[in-house]
Amino acid sequence: MQKIKILHIIKSLGRGGAEMLLPETLKIHDTSRFEFHTIYFLPWKNQMVDSIENAGGKVTCFSASNNIKLMQQYSKVIEYCKTNEIDLIHCHLPWAGFLGRLIFSKTKIPVIYTEHNMQERYHIATKKINQFTFNSQSLALGVSEDVTNSIKKNVNPRIPVKTLLNGANTNSFRRDPELGNKTKKELGIPGNALVIGNVTVFRFQKRLIEWLQVFKDIETKNPNVYGIIVGAGPLEEEIKAELQKLKLEKKVFFPGLKTDVKPYFSTMDIFMMSSSFEGLPIALLEAMSMECAIVSTNAGGIKEVIRDKQDGLICKVEEWKKLSELCQVLIDDPKKLNNLKKAARERAVNSFSLKRMVDSLEEIYLSLLPNLRSESEGVKG
């Protein structure tokens, strides 16, 4: 049978949450039915290319140095769709979404858009273009109820908008204590130390300067606590300046941008997030899958994932200073820490597995391609 050809369009393939989902979902998709292509535009942000290709995806870069040049690639993308007989386009994040809507208006190839962020947090120009173009696509997906409600409130769309919660590959993301100990040794962290960590992009909404301030408060009372922040981003200089100001250079480690984060998750006892806003962070779900106890603000979709005192400990966004108290509760009570580690994995497996997400996504793809659905089901049957 001829496979259904899906094209993902995304601005870059660095190690952000949306980008990370592409290779992880590919590992689970029914590749006897679907064939996946990916187009991106920032050649210097290509960390996930190998992972996508290794999982069976086809990747193409149409180089564009800015958003205007990205939009000017539409004729190349249309030509790609014709040459490769693309059946459906799935866009991620605003500028890829704008491009997908332009292609939809010219070709009528079904287009799905996944929104990973709250509308209120976008630049006013992005918000206006989103409002103006939003109905030029088949369907929109929000990664959390918060994100979906934000679309409905700010865009007032005429097209269907559904919530499809993000997921983590709970089979792949499993804690490996041996790997964790090895990584501790490589970083110079004592084997018996308690590790608090984060895996993130260094942007203002992640509040990593505040994260370091919270860590300093914890470390002052607990000398055997160490920190790891995996990632990179535009605020790296300011964050590392704060690290020096707080004299934490020998206590908090920055391994940089990593495509494989499992060794670092395996070292972490507590995964701490200080975000001011979020969609539904993939790194949070991965940390839960790897049995890290969660201490976080209740930003965005985090409160849909973490039930306070049941799956982790959370506080209000504006009360981020309380994160140190919440961590201290777990430092003082190893049994509670261990229970929350296990509870985090249980929650991820039961409610946020990538398999559930992929099954739902395939059903959505097929619902927009009724003719191809009947053909493929006929063959399957």
TrEMBL record:
The keyword Transferase applies. The keyword Mitochondrion does not apply. Residues 59-171 form the Glycosyltransferase subfamily 4-like N-terminal domain. InterPro entries: Glyco_trans_1 (IPR001296), Glyco_trans_4-like_N (IPR028098), Glycosyltransferase_grp1 (IPR050194). GO terms for molecular function: hexosyltransferase activity. Residues 182-347 form the Glycosyl transferase family domain. Keywords: Transferase. It comes from the Bacteria. PANTHER family: SULFOQUINOVOSYL TRANSFERASE SQD2. This is Glycosyltransferase involved in cell wall biosynthesis.
